[in-house]
């Protein structure tokens, strides 16, 4: 039986790039024999509702047409059902700003993503369950605190139209206002760690901001998040060290500490800015927990 894909299109993704290109990309998939049912989002959060409704109606194969944020919404819609009996499959046509997650699998554009979909490729991957004061979210890519969240917020506010380069511009813009906050955490039930830091990231996959290899050793199917802590770092040293993140060699710096955990518990309880799969949300974080093999991706 031919697989019917529910294509959820976010026209606003990529600062309108998705609106301009989605129709042609979907037409090419149809011409190659892919059965698509297209649904278009109208507002933030709409992709989650569309995915949840389609899943509850029996659909199990979804195509997120947009960027990491669109995929984030689709995944949250699917996992909000609480039905773990059948693992959904999520493909992405990367027409957004960063398109970070698929880079772990060598997919950097819509053509590569289409090839994986047409090949009926399947990989079971973990998601991270994020419990916070307002409920529960799930993510595939990264949750970042401190400098990462500030840069993400500036990207979304001022530099979205520059694509992946916008995050680089935001990083440069945030350097002038360096801060070293403390985010008290416990990893896998260990002792509290409240050391000040420049940045604290919890990575399920390797890339963020498009081509920045935040966690070069991360594996989205190993049952862990990679915890990247960057200690206090002066402005000049940060600027000089920043290019290393594109090759993942920043982890060799003495200020950078890499660990892994299946569960992270947060202490404090106040809301902070969190960059989560390209979106910046104010969350009172309680815990992160890896859910092994929760979905399949077309990669």
Explain this structure.
This protein is of the alpha+beta class and about 300 residues long. It folds into two domains: about 5-120, Probable inorganic polyphosphate/atp-NAD kinase, domain 1 (Rossmann fold, 3-Layer(aba) Sandwich), CATH 3.40.50; about 140-295, Tumour Suppressor Smad4, CATH 2.60.200.40. The protein contains seven helices and 15 strands. The protein has helices at about 15-30, 45-55, 70-80, 110-120, 145-160, 165-175, 235-240; strands at about 5-10, 35-40, 60-65, 90-95, 125-130, 135-140, 140-145, 185, 200-205, 225-230, 255-260, 265, 270-275, 280-285, 285-295. The strands form two sheets. Strands 1, 2, 3, 4, 5, 6, 8, 12 and 15 form a nine-stranded mixed beta sheet that branches. α3 links the parallel β3 and β4. The chain is globular, with a radius of gyration of 19 Å. The protein starts with a strand and ends with a strand. The mean pLDDT is about 90.
Helix-and-strand structural type? alpha+beta
Major sheet details? 9 strands, mixed
Q: What's the number of helices? A: 7
Strand percentage: 25-35%
- Averaged pLDDT: 90
End-to-end Cα distance: 21 Å
Number of domains: 2
Percent of residues in helices: 25-40%
Radius of gyration: 19 Å
Please identify the top-level CATH class of the largest domain.
Answer: Mainly Beta
